[in-house]
Structure formats: C-alpha cells, structure tokens
Design brief:
It is a single chain. The protein has twelve helices and 15 strands. By secondary structure, it is an alpha/beta fold. Strand 11 and strand 12 form a beta hairpin. A seven-stranded mixed sheet has the order 2-10-9-8-7-3-6, sandwiched between helices. Strands 11-12-15-14 form a four-stranded antiparallel sheet. The protein binds D-malate (MLT). D-malate binds next to loops.
Length: 408
C-alpha cells in the first residue's frame, strides 16, 4: 500500500512562484498578441550575465576536468577547502570569527533554508516573520510542525507569526510566545527592510536567553548600502551560541541558474542536551548531499578575488539603480513605497484597498507587468505588492513608465 506524507495536505495551493508562473503562462496563451510585451518583475531572478572573471574561472575548471591529472570526482560533501577558507576569510574581514570548517557549501540558500529544519524536533515551535519567504513556512508544514490551517486568519495554528508592518518599520518585535526556532531574513525578502545592529543584537540576546536558535537568511547582504546595517548576524556578540547563517551566490554573483550557497553553523551552538547542531548538519549533508560541483565551487572562489569583487559590486550597483528607478517612479505615481535602499525588493501598498491578487491581475492585464502579491508571503502581506530590481535596466524603466502613465 502506498502511504504518503499527509502533512503535505496542509500546504495551501502550489508554491507561490509556481502559481505566478502558471498565471503568467496562461495569460500569454490567451493573449498571444501581448505575450511578448510582458515584463517580469516577480520572482527575484537575475538577468545580467555572470561576470567575466567568474566565467573564466569556470572555463579553467572545465578544462581541469578534461585532464586525468586534474580531474575531480565527487566533491567533499561539506565543500572544498579552498572555498570554505575564502568564505571564512570574508567573515574575518568583517570582524566575525568563523572557521572554515564551520562553513557548509551547498547548491543554494533556498535548499538550505528548506532543509535545515530537518535537524530540529518535530514539536519545535517555529517563529516566522509575516510576511515571509514562503520556503520557511512550507518546509515546516511538510515536516509536520504546522498544525491545521486556519482559513479565517490565513495562518497555521502552530506557528508563531511575527507581524512586520508599516508601524514597526517592517521589522518584527519579540514574540509573546517563546519559540524554539526563529527565522529572520535581513535585508528582508519580501519587504526590503533591514535590521539595525542594535535590533539584531536584541534578537541574539533574546535567543540566548530562551535558548532558541535563529536561522538567519543573509542572501541579500551584498545589497546593503547604509553603513550601520549589519551584513552578518555574527557581527553581534553572542551570535555563535544561537545563530545559523545562510547565504547565497545567486543574488550577489548571478548564480540563480548555476546554484551555489552555504550555511554557517558555529561549533558552540548546542541543543538542550549538549548536541552540536554542527554535527547534525554535517551528518545530514554527508548522507543526503554529494557536494556542489567542483566547477561551480571554483566559480564561487572567483567571486572572492579582487577582480570578482569589483565586477559583482558593479552588478549590484546596476540592480540598485533599477531599485531607485522603481522606488522613485512609484512615488511619483502616488504609491506608498518602502524597501529598495539596502535590498533589491520594493514593497508597495496596493492602491484603493485592492487585494494583492487583484492588483496582480490588474497589473498583468492592463500594463503587462508581473509582480508578486504580498499576501503570497503571509497574511500581513495582504494589501501589499513586491517588485524586484533584478530586471534589465531597459525593461525596468519601461515598466515604471507604464505604471506612471497608467497604460502601455
Ligand atoms: C524570490 O523571488 O523571493 C526569490 O528569488 C526566491 C528564491 O530565491 O528562491
């Protein structure tokens, strides 16, 4: 008899970005004359080619694979030493003490942020921001931690939701109920908000006090432009005993199609019985993962070279120029807007009290622009909408012109 995991039945519909992709495809099929005009500012997928020095490193690594003397088989499951050391050095340059063997190289931050929950007990109490990157919620639903879906509140009964609203600057407050696992993402996806060093320190102190773990998603740290915004949770005192950090090469170096990321777990981080989370994740990685490809890890190493750093900074500046165009254009068109200063996401209030999905349909049908409905990120995202700065300059400008004009 086939018996499936019935926790999956609790998931609400398909994954947010799959739902959007299906809707856009259906629109294209029913409006073939307009399909070519659609501008996609929905999923945060990069559009600029990978920087030349990184491509060169990839080519060299491909050539090594063609020579018996330099050929590589399975990668070490936790990552090649050369990349883990380069990552640890980058942390050191920010004053964070992270050792190379505390870095776990993977095929991306999405997989890590979805998989990391496997090392926690099934009854672990989960706290998430609201709105939130849907992977944190959905992966914990799949793991049976959600309880029932409450359609009236648009919430799962067992999760602790931490509202991020205009009033609190889209930064969550400490929850009333004590969690075991706290997901935080700064700069934030979807709101583009940041946490200051003192706000983040408050979270670290809180997590240490109640002996909870913070899963800190820093996928967008390269987009920070303001000086007092921390790039890593390890800039805070005490983070080594309470925080796991997840990072990505997708958004800073254009690896969305290449796939590379990493998770940092300090060795001091232990559960209530003194078991290190580092050992659990190492065991999990060794069992279920055969390591990111050598060619890709070499490309990742090139990201840390002076040339790679210069090139990726230029790409980040390119996208942040788009962010400014979107931000300024929406303001000009009379929208209430936030984000876009330390993050490639712009968060706007839908006009005239429209629901997020109604606004999605309106923008797609009237202006042929795709964005992401705020309610797809959680109940407090209702009435909001996300646009990404990862499009090309030309398409971004065109989209903003359409929004300002109110027509194509
Ligand atoms: C997003 O649009 O939220 C992200 O691109 C999704 C992801 O990184 O998986």
């Amino acid at each position: 008899m086939i018996k499936t995991n019935h926790d999956y039945q609790n998931l609400q519909g398909s994954y947010l970005f799959s739902t959007i992709a299906k809707k856009v495809a259906a629109y294209g099929e029913s409006h073939p004359d307009r399909a070519g005009q659609v501008i996609r500012l929905g999923i945060g997928d990069v559009t600029q080619p990978i920087a030349p020095s990184i491509i060169r490193a990839m080519h060299e690594a491909v050539d090594e694979m063609a020579d018996a003397a330099t050929f590589k088989g399975y990668a070490p499951d936790l990552g090649y030493e050369f990349l883990r050391s380069a990552i640890a050095d980058e942390y050191k340059s920010r004053g964070c003490s992270i050792a190379a063997d505390e870095v776990f190289v993977s095929d991306g931050a999405k997989c890590d942020s979805g998989n990391i929950q496997e090392i926690f007990s099934r009854d672990a109490k989960i706290a998430v921001c609201d709105p939130v990157y849907p992977v944190y919620v959905d992966s914990n639903v799949m793991a049976g931690r959600s309880g029932k879906w409450d359609p009236a509140r648009q919430c799962y009964e067992n999760f602790i939701y931490m509202p991020c609203t205009e009033e609190n600057g889209f930064a969550p407050e400490l929850p009333e109920q004590e969690p075991d696992v706290i997901y935080l993402c700064f700069p934030n996806n979807p709101t583009g908000a940041t946490a200051s060093k003192s706000q983040l320190q408050e979270w670290v102190d809180y997590a240490n006090k109640i002996h909870a773990v913070i899963l800190y998603d820093a996928a967008y740290e390269a987009y920070i432009s303001e000086p007092d915004v921390p790039h890593s949770i390890y800039e805070c005192d005490g983070a080594r005993t309470c925080a796991i950090e997840i990072r990505s090469f997708s958004k800073n170096a254009g690896f969305t199609g290449v796939r590379l990321g990493f998770t940092v777990i300090p060795k001091e981080l232990k559960d209530a019985d003194g078991i290190t989370l580092h050992s659990l994740w190492a065991r999990r990685h060794g069992t279920k993962y055969n390591g990111a490809p050598y060619i890709i890890q070499k490309a990742g190493l090139a990201v840390y070279s002076p040339e790679g750093q210069k090139e990726i900074r230029e790409q980040v500046a390119y996208y942040m120029n788009n962010a400014k165009i979107i931000y300024d254009g929406l303001k000009k068109a009379g929208y209430s807007v936030s984000g876009g200063v330390n993050a490639p996401y712009i968060w706007l209030k839908t006009p005239d009290g429209m629901t997020s999905w109604d606004f999605f349909d309106d923008l797609l049908e009237r202006l042929n622009i795709v964005g992401t409905p705020g309610s797809g990120f959680g109940p407090h995202g209702e009435g909001y909408f996300r646009l990404t700065a990862f499009g090309s300059y030309e398409k971004t400008k065109e989209a903003v012109d359409r929004i300002i004009a109110g027509r194509i």
